[in-house]
Amino acid sequence: MTQIKSLADLKAIKQSIQAKIETREKGNAEGLVHVRVAMATCGIAAGAKTIMDYMMAETDKRGMNVVFTQTGCMGYCHAEPTIEVTLPGKEPIVFGYVDTKKADEIIEKYIKDGELVDGIIPVNYETINK
Amino acid sequence: MAKFKMHLLICGGTGCNASQSQEIAQNLKNGLKDKGLENEVQVILTGCFGFCEKGPIVKVMPDNTFYTEVKPEDAREIIEEHVVKGRKVTRLLYVDPENKQQVADSKHMGFYKKQLRIALRNCGFIDPENIEEYISEDGYSALAKCLGEMKPEEVVKEIKLSGLRGRGGGGFPTGLKWEIAAGNHADQKYVVCNADEGDPGAFMDRSILEGDPHSVIEAMAINGYAIGATKGLVYIRAEYPLAIKRLLTALEQARTFGLLGKDIFGSGFDFDIELRYGAGAFVCGEETALIHSMEGMRGEPTFKPPFPAQEGYNKKPTNVNNVETYANIPIIINKGAEWFNKIGTEKSKGTKVFALAGQINNVGLIEVPMGITLREIIYEIGGGIKDGRQFKAVQTGGPSGGCLTSAHLDTPIDYDNLIAVGSMMGSGGMVVMDETSCMVAIAKFYLEFTVEESCGKCSPCRIGNKRLYEILEKITKGNGTMEDLDNLANLSRVIKDTALCGLGQTSPNPVLSTIENFYDEYVEHIKDKKCRAGVCKSLMQYVVDPVACVGCTACARNCPVNAIQGEKKMPHVISTELCIKCGACIEKCKFGAISIQ
Ligand SMILES: Cc1cc2nc3c(=O)[nH]c(=O)nc-3n(C[C@H](O)[C@H](O)[C@H](O)COP(=O)(O)O)c2cc1C
Ligand code: SF4
Ligand code: SF4
Ligand code: SF4
Ligand code: FES
Ligand code: FES
């Protein structure tokens, strides 16, 4: 181990393990955009995992601070993969049939600017995951 | 490095550790591997979440799911349901004591809502055995700032401005203490961390050392720089093996990283820390006794002055601070005195960690802003009194403190208010009592502790406390007189005024405050020979209800001393003189005719 000799050295360490701890910090933070990805059997089969990975990587690349969590069946098996996006202070909005193209649109328009895009499913469920 | 999608935080504090958190962590890791998820989900053993009663705790981040009473065999379900399918394992969720509803995440738990975590900021969040995690939470940047940008006097000034006061009991202004130590010149000075934590039931300091040892190490180095000391000592009780282990690991890592040792941050400042182990005597937490004990002498207090800041360890200027006091330092340096200053009351800044215990729904370790009320602590954080019973009193300050009553429920809690109502902050014990507690017996309990722990050096404490105890014993046995009550109060005042050290000077507080707040209860014990809480056994009487009694003779046949008389099929009578209160009759009566009054 090289010795730490300056604030810059400390920052370098902080940076290097940021990826390790960031997800945890986001859980504590207030006022972040929250994306929940339905990961029940049908969701995974329909590619929810790929979408989650894609969105995590993309929001990161674009320097956006978004919390991703998984959730169980949201009751829209027909429209999988589904994701629910909650902007701070707003009602959650559910999008269906999300593919990477749609995900990109959601990131660019809805998450970035709060502009609605197609594919919204009316919310009709209540789960303990709230 | 790939980013982890999810973190499973398992409490590795002493409480949860004892109930198999290591196995849980191992099972979770194995389970993740089986699913090929070990690079997507991270498993970490953290420090205490403060919810030890319901441990082991597993917290899932970033969704803040809070699982309680997890068993190693639950690991599979957590992985298969929560991690893979995103479905929370509802049976493991915390259940709100009020409305019996499951609470999905810790942000919605009453226990955490009113808390403000400063000293405990990293407890239950980072891996205490990994210095990099501490660094990623801005660890050691306060030390870097002090060494790189601030003169020692500026550090002292910042701490002074913050208004931080000692968390070890006395509440002495920390900045002022540092200033005095800085002003005393010598070839060698020392910084000592007091981790003796002798209050019965207290575990604040242990939890900090187990959950965030680096915060204390960093603070001690800052303290050393501020006062001109190059050596630090932690006095820790040997009964804290896990805290010692984590501290030793942390020290090793800090040295490897060059954050302890020679020329830290290339500033020319040297500092290192050693541990000293205490045998666990309460009086050794008193700073002069602690210093003597570290010097290899008997752990007995000596008269102050000289104060440790003048003549301490090895007769050199020594600054003694408590663990929790230290845990506040790095964040004050980083965020500034002004930030800290805004939290709390006029003369008590910041937060205080309490070990909340007793007859309350949520017991555990809590950190609250100064100025919070007892009502908020008991009914919001604590979830109310157990089994819907009535609140009666709260004991703070342990054997040195006193009781607060329902009259004080809305008093903002800070150093000065607690003293004004006859108690004290102490190191942070907080025991909530309901109507089933007898206040005379409570006073007796604390006196028994003091008598046991008195070092015996001065007579007011050695003999006086013994007498206090004997009088209390007499009253709980039903032999007290009103004169005894006066004697209790008078003797208490004498001990307070004449004892040599803080132990003796505060030991009568539990007596005085219970007399003050529960005078009627003392009088009842003395005049009516009655203990309304039903705690003092000698004052209880077994009586037969003549209406309910069918005369089955079962009780009489089972009484070991033949205290029960009566004809078959006729009501029976218990002779109070003969009865030895063994309780056998109550168990035998199938008709519920016998009761204790
Ligand atoms: C009988 C007795 C026991 C004490 N026990 C402790 C203890 O366990 N931990 C502690 O930090 N301070 C304890 N103190 C207070 C110390 O003497 C000292 O004031 C304190 O460590 C100073 O640190 P602080 O200013 O940061 O609170 C005790 C004092 C007395 C009189
Ligand atoms: S007050 Fe008690 S503990 Fe303190 S020196 Fe006297 S005898 Fe010892
Ligand atoms: S309590 Fe014991 S001694 Fe007293 S009357 Fe009942 S059985 Fe007899
Ligand atoms: S056991 Fe109960 S009912 Fe029977 S004689 Fe005793 S008091 Fe009466
Ligand atoms: S399992 Fe996916 S919506 Fe039902
Ligand atoms: S030891 Fe696990 S919550 Fe306290």
> What share of residues of chain B is helical?
25-40%
Helix content of chain A: 40-55%
Strand order of the largest sheet of chain B: 9-10-8-7-11
C-alpha-based Rg of chain A, rounded? 17 Å
Report, as a whole number of angstroms, the end-to-end distance of chain B: 70 Å
Radius of gyration of chain B: 27 Å
Query: What's the shape of chain A?
Result: elongated
Report the CATH C-level class of the largest domain in chain B: Alpha Beta
Using DSSP, what is the number of strands of chain B? 20
Number of helices of chain A: 4
Which topology of the largest domain in chain B does CATH recognise? Rossmann fold
Mind explaining what this structure looks like?
The complex is a heterodimer of chains A (130) and B (597). The C terminus of chain A is likely disordered. By secondary structure, chain A is an alpha+beta fold. Chain B is α/β, with parallel strands linked by helices and 597 residues long. Chain B has five domains: 108 residues, Glutaredoxin (3-Layer(aba) Sandwich), CATH 3.40.30; 210 residues, Rossmann fold; 84 residues, Ubiquitin-like (UB roll) (Roll), CATH 3.10.20; 90 residues, NADH-ubiquinone oxidoreductase 51kDa subunit, iron-sulphur binding domain (de novo design (two linked rop proteins), Up-down Bundle), CATH 1.20.1440; 56 residues, Alpha-Beta Plaits, CATH 3.30.70.20. In chain B, the strands form six sheets. Chain B has a five-stranded mixed sheet, sandwiched between helices. Chain B has a five-stranded mixed sheet with strand order 13-12-16-14-15. In chain B, a hairpin with a 5-residue loop joins strand 12 and strand 13. The longest helix of chain B has 18 residues. The termini of chain B are far apart. Chains A and B meet through helix 1, helix 2, helix 3 and strand 2 of A and strand 1, helix 3, helix 5 and helix 6 of B. One FE2/S2 (inorganic) cluster (FES) binds next to helix 1 of chain B.
Key structural traits:
heterodimer; A: 130 residues; alpha+beta; Glutaredoxin; five-stranded mixed beta sheet; 4 helices; 16% strand; disordered C terminus; B: 597 residues; alpha/beta; 5 domains; binds iron/sulfur cluster; binds FE2/S2 (inorganic) cluster
